């Protein structure tokens, strides 16, 4: 018996350009103010991350892995994956209703399913399950890109944030 086939979900086809512009702006102004995000995802003037899609509560972005993303064995570092889950959970909330603040982390977990290596491209999918008056629940998936298309799932996580109701 071989390994089971990777779970591959097709990316969405429609795009909301107002939400996409908001996600890009939120990342370049708010997220890049954090040194760790700027180090891993690049500064606004030379981004390493490329946003490809956004709709209400969902965004997709791609990142080519460099040495800064790897562990000593040459695979995607677990702490980088966890940081991506933290970052993407907040951006998914920003995509939910164009909010300018996305709250603080309450809980975060991640499951590592496979790996990616130097030069590999990954696709990050951040989505909102629910945004309530106090809590927001998000899911983040990191897929390996193979032949320009979404391949196997590398990691998936959930991120709960305390949020203030949007006025």
Concise account of the structure shown:
The chain is an alpha+beta fold and 167 residues long. 24% of the residues lie in helices and 36% in strands.
Overall description:
By secondary structure, this protein is of the alpha+beta class. The protein has helices spanning 17-29, 35-41, 78-97; strands at residues 49-55, 58-64, 104-112, 121-131, 135-146, 149-162. It is built from three helices and six strands. Helix 1 (17-29) crosses helix 3.
Sheet with the most strands: spatial strand order: 1-2-4-5-6-3
Oligomer: single chain
Distance between the termini: 55 Å
Order of helices and strands: HHEEHEEEE
Could you give a short account of the major beta sheet?
6 strands, antiparallel
- Number of distinct beta strands: 6
Share of β-strand residues: 35-45%
Radius of gyration, rounded? Answer: 15 Å
Domain Thioesterase: 74-149
Protein name: Thioesterase family protein
Family: Belongs to the thioesterase PaaI family.
Pfam family, one: 4HBT
């Amino acid at each position: 018996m071989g390994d089971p086939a990777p779970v591959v979900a097709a990316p969405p086809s429609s795009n909301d350009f107002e939400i996409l512009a908001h996600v890009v702006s939120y990342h370049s102004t708010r997220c890049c103010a954090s040194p760790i995000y700027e180090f891993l995802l690049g500064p606004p003037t030379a981004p390493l991350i490329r946003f490809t899609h956004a709709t209400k509560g969902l965004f997709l972005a791609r990142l080519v892995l460099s040495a800064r993303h790897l562990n000593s064995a040459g695979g995607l570092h677990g702490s980088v994956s966890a940081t991506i889950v933290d970052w993407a959970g907040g951006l998914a909330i920003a995509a939910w209703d164009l909010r300018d603040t996305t709250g603080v982390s309450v809980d975060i977990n991640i499951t590592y399913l496979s790996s990616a290596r130097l030069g590999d491209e990954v696709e990050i999918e951040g989505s909102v399950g629910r945004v309530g008056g106090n809590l927001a629940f998000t899911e983040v998936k990191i897929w390996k890109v193979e032949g320009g298309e979404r391949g196997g799932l590398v990691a998936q996580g959930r991120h709960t944030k305390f949020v203030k109701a949007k006025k």
